[in-house]
């Protein structure tokens, strides 16, 4: 056993076993490291996304108001009469917001207070009674006059937008219901 003890001591001496305790060292300082933000993946190469077409808005009020003013000054127009306003029809080569045009027409006539307008609810009920769709835009003048007679209106205002959708033209006709005579007509470019 002595033999083994000598080998162990020799091994300790050779490995440099310290005979005295190590000198104290300063504690290591650890600085925090900011984590890197994950990089955004590059979009895959390919076609560029096309820009959507620019929506051009039409200024229905600016287009309709001067025509309504002109119509109210026409000969043969009796103030206070009952007027059936037919919805504005789209006869262009594209799509236009016709409900906005009809709304602007109603607003212009309501604020002028020259006519008593057939209420939209009464017009819808009359269309249903006559077997027409509520959304029927009365594509013909004779249909508009027939409906105006049914609701006891003295005048009917027939309006349509025609031409190229990029530069539409507004046409309006005020007709006497009893005879079908066109009392006034006017047209003009729809303003943007």
Automatic annotation (TrEMBL):
It holds the Pfam family LpoB. Residues 26-37 have a biased composition (Low complexity). It comes from the Bacteria. Its main location: membrane. One of its GO terms (molecular function) is enzyme regulator activity. The keyword Transit peptide does not apply. Keywords: Cell outer membrane, Cell shape, Lipoprotein, Membrane, Palmitate, Peptidoglycan synthesis, Signal. Residues 16-53 are annotated as: Disordered. HAMAP family: LpoB (MF_01889). NCBIfam families: lp. Belongs to the LpoB family. Regulator of peptidoglycan synthesis that is essential for the function of penicillin-binding protein 1B (PBP1b). Interacts with PBP1b. This is Penicillin-binding protein activator LpoB. It comes from Samsonia erythrinae.
């Amino acid at each position: 056993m002595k033999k083994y003890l000598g080998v162990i001591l020799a091994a300790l001496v050779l490995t440099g076993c310290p005979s005295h305790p190590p000198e104290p060292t300063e504690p290591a300082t650890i600085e925090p490291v900011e984590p890197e933000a994950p990089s955004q993946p590059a979009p895959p190469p390919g076609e560029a996304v096309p820009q959507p077409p620019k929506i051009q808005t039409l200024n229905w009020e600016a287009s309709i108001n001067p025509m309504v003013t002109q119509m109210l000054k026409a000969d043969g127009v009796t103030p206070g009469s009952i007027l059936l306003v037919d919805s504005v029809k789209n006869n262009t080569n594209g799509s236009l917001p016709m409900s906005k045009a009809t709304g602007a027409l109603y607003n212009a006539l309501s604020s002028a207070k020259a006519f008593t307008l057939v209420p939209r609810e009464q017009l819808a009920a009359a269309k249903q009674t006559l077997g027409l769709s509520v959304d029927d835009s009365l594509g013909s003048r004779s249909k508009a006059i027939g409906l105006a007679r049914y609701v006891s209106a003295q005048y009917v205002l027939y309006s349509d937008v025609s031409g190229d959708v990029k530069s539409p033209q507004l046409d309006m006709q005020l007709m006497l219901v009893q005879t079908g005579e066109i009392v006034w007509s006017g047209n003009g470019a729809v303003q943007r």
